Amino acid sequence: MEADKVLKQVNEIFKEVLDNENILLKKDTVADDVDGWDSLTHIQLVITIEKYFGIRFISHEIRSWNNVGEMISSICSKI
Question: Rounded mean pLDDT of the chain?
Fold first, then answer.
């Protein structure tokens, strides 16, 4: 699956989990750029992404993400 398509799907997940229709993720987006994206919602986001794509991340992968682009790369490598 193309990274741009995955980014669009992840953006929709963020909108739903964070209850904010104004979110527009880019590959260089970090948690500080998105209102409501804190450590608790990060867990919710990861779980929702795992369920949506039918994948699982190990904690090392999740901790290694510095931005949305790295998250997207991890998703793409698993699907």
Answer: 95
